[in-house]
Design a protein that fits this description.
membrane; ATP binding; alpha/beta; ABC_transporter-like_CS; ABC transporter ATP-binding protein
Length: 353
């Protein structure tokens, strides 16, 4: 299992196998209305060759976290603090020149929308070959051969001919495959996939997911897979981090979190999904309310305004005391372990079937 943080506020020792270690990460954006606390004390580790899934609603901080890992935030309007250790090197303290050597080389990202991520002014082949030349010093001929090789690996038909095509000449699934090929050109140690299948139909989505798993086996990359789809993450990840309002609220192996969830927010996510084999007329159970404003997040547990179980906690702990995420398999919630077990067995599990 991926070794993760001891608490959200206290950095934990880096595990011996951790390749990426994020410690007490905080990302703030300055706006006209105030400071947005997009990520608020987040810690996790990822091992080589393993996949960490990060799930949560839109605005929970998933993408912001991973843009911070690659140093892609505008320093004029944002601040990033904490530690992001990539194989022991703190990326937050790295210069822009150092980050340029890391991006696309040791760490790469598959963006959610390849049509906007790929430049419309350059051929797909050129967009694959030029970063490879920059990082490796390869000749044009070598870079073209490598690009065609990677287009072949990701299943692009007639890759030597498609090398000279522009992004608009590719279908949505092919553009996503080209993005994956681009991210793998330099055999990165870390691959960040930011909802890479959101805009694809289910058939192409399955092909892309299988492709990522096959390529991970071949290259041994660590993967961070960001999604809001728990069905996708069940088939992709080894470990799972559930985020809400810029914080981690639950973590564990995929099997632990999806089969025995311990946080009311995770219960809500699972209960709002349609059941395989369930009644087609069965009503879904959405989480009540809306995600909080990160300009002025709630005190205490950020989920307490939407939680149906606050009355089971003594006093006003939910609204006044921030629950911490303990080491190992854990959920940041003031409910006792026995209460979590009872609620899950009596109220939640019957809904999940």
């Amino acid at each position: 299992m991926t070794t993760l943080t001891k608490t959200e506020d206290t950095p934990a020792p880096t595990g011996p196998e951790a390749f990426l270690s994020v410690r007490d990460l905080r990302v703030r954006f300055s706006t006209e209305d105030g400071v947005v606390k997009a990520v608020d004390g987040l810690s996790f580790d990822v091992e080589r060759g393993k996949t960490l899934g990060i799930v949560g609603e839109s605005g929970s901080g998933k993408s912001v976290t991973n843009l911070a890992v690659l140093g892609l935030h505008n320093p004029q309007s944002s601040s990033v603090t904490g530690e992001i250790l990539l194989d022991g090197k703190n990326l937050i303290a790295a210069s822009e020149k150092e980050m340029e050597r890391i991006r696309g080389n040791r760490a790469a990202m598959i963006f959610q929308d390849p049509l906007t991520a790929l430049s419309p002014y350059y051929t797909v082949g050129r967009q694959l070959a030029e970063p490879f030349r920059k990082h490796t010093g390869a000749s044009r001929k070598e870079a073209k051969a490598r690009a065609i090789e990677m287009l072949t690996k990701v299943g692009i038909p007639q890759p030597a001919l498609r090398f000279d095509d522009y992004p608009h000449q590719f279908s949505g699934g092919m553009r996503q495959r080209a993005m994956i090929a681009m991210s793998l050109m330099c055999n990165p140690d870390l691959l960040i996939a930011d909802e890479p299948t959101t805009a694809l139909d289910v058939t192409v989505q399955a092909q892309i997911l299988d492709l990522l798993k096959d390529l991970q086996q071949e290259f041994g990359s660590a993967i961070i897979f960001i999604t809001h789809d728990l069905g996708v993450i069940a088939n992709m990840a080894d470990d799972l981090l559930v985020m809400y309002a810029g914080r981690a609220v639950e973590r564990g192996t995929v099997r632990e979190v999806l089969q025995q969830p311990k946080h009311p927010y995770t219960w809500g996510l699972l209960s709002s999904m349609p059941r395989l084999g369930g009644d087609i007329n069965e009503a879904l159970m959405p989480i009540p309310g809306s995600p909080p404003s990160l300009l002025n997040p709630p005190s205490g547990c950020p989920f307490h305004p939407r939680c149906a179980f606050t009355e089971k906690v003594d006093g006003e702990r939910c609204s006044g005391e921030r629950p911490l995420l303990a080491e190992g398999r854990a959920a940041a919630c003031h409910l006792t372990p026995e209460q979590k077990r009872t609620i899950f067995i009596d109220d939640i599990k019957p809904r999940l079937g």
